[in-house]
């Protein structure tokens, strides 16, 4: 097994390796979170806008697979308040001990999670939000650069954002955005991060709940094949950017990749998930339980997608990242504990 790299993040999270798998809404369910945690990382499940019943089921499934710590990702500011209350209550009732929150910083939500004895991660895209999240009580800050796949909060590249966030907060910082290998981990550590937060690398695993079509597209993609846009905005607030693989919809948009208002967009059904429609231009990515025109859906991917060249189990992804990171540190002659 790869040599450990001990950091403030591994100490805080109680995991062996400084790697957090992103709580991707849809793809990151129990199978993926459990696999990452069992392999020594820290797995997050994406339970954004999911029913309390599914949350209860998925949390129980993680606990059945591993006794290692894990967390649940929720996005309070873009979730109907009544549903969010139900989600939050379901998580606590199921024994969730860590939450990751994203988008607008909501101090009251952090306070409630801390009062319940939970660890709190906050994913942010600016120094101001990092400071606000720490002030609210967050235990870990995830600094997300514009290179990240999925919903993107930042307008800055990670190389510019990360050092500023590290200098502005005292809690451990995990770097996120375009990181899919061990060299990315070492680069993040060099800029002061205590670990990394990866989505795309874990999207292309057997344990991911993403549809095989999405996984194949990731393997085919090269660096430069992603697009930053607010085209896929139905179900989210106006002006919410995402990073996706290029497809027929982004090509047809031409230079009109920005300025889309979900309230004005026509609802054209292009798929179905468990009896519910999937609309053209909405934020749903292709999942195992979906049918429809996957090519026209949001194919989330970060700029590190060029490093994803085969489907590997989550444990193998972690082993590869750590092996590459240790080799890079050895080349640099850096002593490790």
Task: Describe this entry's structure for a reader.
With 337 residues, the protein is α/β, with parallel strands linked by helices. It folds into two domains: 8-208 and 307-332, Aldolase class I (TIM Barrel); 226-300, no CATH class. The chain is 35% helix and 18% strand. An eight-stranded parallel beta barrel has the order 1-2-3-4-5-6-8-9, surrounded by six helices. α5 runs parallel beside α6 (127-136). The mean pLDDT is 96.
Secondary-structure blueprint of this entry?
Blueprint: H1 8-13, E1 19-21, H2 30-38, E2 42-46, H3 52-65, E3 70-74, H4 81-93, E4 98-102, H5 107-115, E5 119-124, H6 127-136, E6 140-144, E7 150-151, H7 158-168, E8 173-176, H8 182-190, E9 195-198, H9 200-203, H10 212-220, E10 226-229, E11 242-245, H11 248-253, E12 269-273, E13 276-279, E14 290-292, H12 314-332
Parallel strand pairs: 1-2, 1-9, 2-3, 3-4, 4-5, 5-6, 6-8, 8-9
Antiparallel strand pairs: 7-11, 10-11, 12-13, 12-14
Summarize the structure.
The protein has 337 residues and is an alpha/beta fold. It has helices spanning 8-13, 30-38, 52-65, 81-93, 107-115, 127-136, 158-168, 182-190, 200-203, 212-220, 248-253, 314-332; strands at 19-21, 42-46, 70-74, 98-102, 119-124, 140-144, 150-151, 173-176, 195-198, 226-229, 242-245, 269-273, 276-279, 290-292.
């Amino acid at each position: 097994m790869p040599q450990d790299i001990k950091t403030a993040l591994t100490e805080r999270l109680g995991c062996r390796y400084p790697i957090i798998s992103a709580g991707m809404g849809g793809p990151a369910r129990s199978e993926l979170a459990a696999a990452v945690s069992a392999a020594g990382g820290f797995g997050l499940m994406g339970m954004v806008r999911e029913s309390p019943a599914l949350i209860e089921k998925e949390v129980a499934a993680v606990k059945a697979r591993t006794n290692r710590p894990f967390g649940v990702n929720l996005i309070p500011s873009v979730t109907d308040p009544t549903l969010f209350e139900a989600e939050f209550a379901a998580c606590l009732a199921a024994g969730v001990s860590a939450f990751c929150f994203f988008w607008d910083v909501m101090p009251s939500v952090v306070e409630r999670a801390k009062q319940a004895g939970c660890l709190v991660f906050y994913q942010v895209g600016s120094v101001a939000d990092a400071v606000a999240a720490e002030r609210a009580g967050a235990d870990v800050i995830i600094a997300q650069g514009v290179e990240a796949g999925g919903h993107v909060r930042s307008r800055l590249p990670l190389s510019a954002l990360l050092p500023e966030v590290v200098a502005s907060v005292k809690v451990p910082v995990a770097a996120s955005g375009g990181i899919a290998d061990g060299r990315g981990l070492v680069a993040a550590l060099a800029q002061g991060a205590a670990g990394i937060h990866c989505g795309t690398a874990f999207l292309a695993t057997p344990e991911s709940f993403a549809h095989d079509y999405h996984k194949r597209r990731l393997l085919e993609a090269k660096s430069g094949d992603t697009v930053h846009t607010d085209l896929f905005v139905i179900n989210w607030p106006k002006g919410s950017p995402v990073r996706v693989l290029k497809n027929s919809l982004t090509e047809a948009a031409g230079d009109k990749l920005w300025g889309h208002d979900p309230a004005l967009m026509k609802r054209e059904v292009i798929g179905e998930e468990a009896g519910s429609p999937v609309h053209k231009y909405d934020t749903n990515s292709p999942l195992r339980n979906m049918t429809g025109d996957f090519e026209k859906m949001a194919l989330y991917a970060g700029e590190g997608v060029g490093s994803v060249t085969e489907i590997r189990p989550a444990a193998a992804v972690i082993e590869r990242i750590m092996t590459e990171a240790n080799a890079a540190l050895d080349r640099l002659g850096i002593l490790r504990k």
